[in-house]
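Fill-in record for glucan endo-1,3-beta-D-glucosidase.
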Amino acid sequence: MLFYRGMRLCRLVSFLFLLFTSQIAPLTVNAFTGTYGINYGRIADNIPTPEKVVELLKAAKIRNVRIFDFDHSVLQAFSGTGLELVVGLPNGYLKDMSDNADHALSWVKDNIQQFYPQTRIVGIAIGNEVLGNDQDLSESLLGAAKNIYNATKSLHLDHKIQITTSHSFGVFDNSYPPSNCTFRDNVKQQFMVPLLDFFSKIGSPFCLNAYPFLTYMSDPKHIDVKYALFQKNAGIVDSQTKLHYDNLLDAQIDAAYAALEDAGFKKMEVIITETGWASRGDPSEEVATPENARTYNYNLRKRLALRKGTPMRPKIMLKAYVFAMFNEDDKPGPNSERNFGLWKPDGSISYDVGFPALKSSALAISPFSIKDIRAQGWLTSYSTTFTTSMMILFLLLRS
């Protein structure tokens, strides 16, 4: 009897080991942990040093971070922190990377491999908002993505670092109602479909920059600002699918899913790589206020903490990178472009959505702390696995 009980216990230990390793393994290859991330832009002359930024991110418990270039001071500052970083290959490099595979390999060696794995680089973003905006760059995007991917493959990094590119909402046509959305004819067959075909083969998601702020400003007569801000409102019903939407961001994401399905890529995941709300703008940007920016970002955090999908894809958990960490005073364009930051240049908060200021103690507990940890995927899956495993062990030992 003791022998058989011992055998059962050994089998149980093996089962538990496989169970825990199956939970841990995806973290080594997944490009996004949990649901919440942030963009760390640096087009400014007055923001904190990268080392201070790391301190701020850790205090805020934000694990997923995107940068728009490959600055070595940033890559070095993130070394050993455990923060998960998506590195950007700027648009100006696309033609060279597309035309010359050797240059792509050298770039990956110099800017990715030499910092990995001490710096936890989980992705490379090939350009930003290229398709539909620049014909010459559009012709180079796929080639650059393939050459960078092949470089990671030759260095045995392809199963650890994800290759993506982010699109603006301008690649879509007929986005209302969501189920009616398609890709614009001038980008679909020539550029988008070949790119999506490549990304589907290597397991990359469709990355979208979606701004209810901009969409509302483009048509304020027909869009309820409460619908854009995740506030209580009547919402809309898609006349084709009969699905109800209570916020604009979900509708934008499902528009992307509809366009992907129309193009033949129904199974591809959509990830939001930029979204946010400006806290200040020009006179024509009257909804760019601290109150609206706080409302949007606070409610977005609550939406992501639910860990649920959209009406069209309820089983695919929504993931989003907020734009942005700081107000960036050197950005061109309207005043709103320089005022998307959750923090001011001195590290103080622009408005309160539950994150600490730079000089606040990292041990200070906000009312969102546990929810944030759950939303970022550090607690739920492991606590559930541990509890289930202990129950199984208790029952078998009693038998």
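KEY FINDING: Residues 383 and 389 are 10 Å apart (CA to CA).
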